């Protein structure tokens, strides 16, 4: 994949190029230190992917994208600041990497590109609200002033809070303005299971299962959350998890 690195910091460009050496399918065909240089290279070289810094002298990364004539390359933003995540999402960014970039996060971003290339039918429209979301899908989450791009496989639990749903991942518990029912319709039922009226659990996160009252089950998730599976859902759970 023909790739262009756009960053005003030479050390940042060098470090990213070094990390990208781990991915043979990524062919770095050029570097630019500002938007004007990048626009000329984009026109001349027609890259398929940009690793794009946001804060740069002159035009910033968003202004650069707005100035591109014709079809824009795919974009992965690289920045030291998390406050631009909302705007990055509006520009249909594939990912949003915070500096210093870690190899495992870069690998997730590259895998996401490869998944899109292998399944182009899921690529458009990018905001298809009917698409079933699996553990490898990454979603944008905003709660107050905090923003995340989080892979759904890291979300161990979805908890209904009235008209909101609380997502449990790492040590974070942000709220999103969704009902649990609407969220259930979007999630892959082979990975995300409706345990009861208030909870959807991520099945690979289950650590222990115990019999519970009235034919129900009690599951303990990795991390310690204990969630009751209702009697009716316990029947479905056993069918789903049996050979």
**Helix-strand sequence:** EHEHEHEHEHEEEEEHEEEEEH
Count of beta strands:
15
Proportion of strand residues: 25-35%
Low-confidence stretches: 119-128
Instruction: Give the name of the CATH superfamily of the largest domain.
Output: Response regulator
CATH class of the largest domain: Alpha Beta
- Output mean pLDDT: 87
Query: How many domains would you count in the coordinates?
Result: 2
Q: What is the general shape?
A: elongated
Q: Give me the secondary-structure category.
A: alpha/beta
The biggest beta sheet is recorded as: 5 strands, parallel
* SS summary, helix count: 7
Query: What is the CATH topology classification name of the largest domain?
Result: Rossmann fold
Radius of gyration: 21 Å
The CATH architecture of the largest domain: 3-Layer(aba) Sandwich
- Which sequence of strands runs across the widest sheet? 2-1-3-4-5
> What is the terminal separation in angstroms?
41 Å
Can you give the helix content as a percent range?
A: 25-40%
Provide structural commentary.
This protein is an alpha/beta fold and about 240 residues long. It has two domains: about 120 residues, Response regulator (Rossmann fold, 3-Layer(aba) Sandwich), CATH 3.40.50.2300; about 100 residues, LytTr DNA-binding domain (OB fold (Dihydrolipoamide Acetyltransferase, E2P), Beta Barrel), CATH 2.40.50. The strands form four sheets. It has a five-stranded parallel sheet, with helices on both faces. A five-stranded antiparallel sheet has the order 10-9-8-12-11, with no helix packed on it. It has a three-stranded antiparallel sheet with strand order 13-14-15. Strand 8 and strand 9 form a beta hairpin. The longest helix has 16 residues. The chain is elongated and about 70 Å long.
